Amino acid sequence: MTLTTTLLTLPLPPPITTSFTTATSTTAHPFLSAAAAGTLPKPRLAAWLAQDRLYIHAYIRFIGALLAKLNLPLPVSQPHANQTTTDQNETKTLESQTLHTLTAALNNIVRELDFFVAVADEYALDLNTPFQAPQSEPGEAAAPAAAPAAPAVGTFTASPITTAYTDLFISAGSAGTSLLEGLVVLWATEVCYLTVWRNVREAMPQEKNGGDADGGALREKLIPNWTCAEFEEFVEGITRLVNAVAEREVQQSSAGPEKAWEEVVERCARWWRQVVWLEGQFWPEI
């Protein structure tokens, strides 16, 4: 079993959810249910896009940190006495694959920024929509304050969850985190994003009488972009890369295959669970 398959099938303890399937279903959050039904109010979509745009800025810096982990330039010298030509070529191939994958991720996300602006302009979505903390229902006890504290009403800034995602990217790109773990975080964010929006697309009715509440932005532009064949191929490429890098770590470990595999899964599962939890919290209240 590959690393990504193992992570996808791991049980997710509370307060995350019971499984990855549950976490990415259209019933996981009212925001997703409304998106699938075409009833998502335009201001709430704008609020989410505004935070997603800030997330993209953190993502760009994260990709830069992962690029800095690559062992460049690639070696071209003759193999060492204890390293075969095949081993050296495999190392070059993985380094090259990682370089191309990360640069593709960077190019894709820069295009996404431009795409956000174009869609926002076409459908009158305000990408400077201020973050609003969830309000307690009458008679309901106020939820414990998140850390960091929610910004003042009317202030355009990162929400606590967007800030937490930024912190995760900083940690996953830090010098003390392996390239494999950083790639797992990258893969986790992309596979969650693709899966949840593919589920929303499949749950959407073909047509909605009276039109969508967001003016058609999700149905006509955003969801087709987030579930297109090119994005699916990109996620599949990251999946293959993560599994190959994980396999290399196991093979190069002196602990033995079984123990090395358990250690790799344990390290990567911590990052996987954090991403799934953050993805579940990223949707705004409606």
UniProtKB/TrEMBL annotation:
Domain Thiaminase-2/PQQC intervals: 26-70
Record Pfam families: TENA_THI-4 (PF03070)
One GO biological process term: thiamine metabolic process
Family annotation (InterPro entries): Haem_Oase-like_multi-hlx, Polyketide-peptide_reg, Thiaminase-2/PQQC
Highest taxon of source: Eukaryota
Classification via PANTHER family: REGULATOR PAB1642, PUTATIVE (AFU_ORTHOLOGUE AFUA_3G11955)-RELATED (PTHR41813)
Protein name: Thiaminase-2/PQQC domain-containing protein
Organism expressing this protein natively: Aspergillus aculeatus (strain ATCC 16872 / CBS 172.66 / WB 5094)
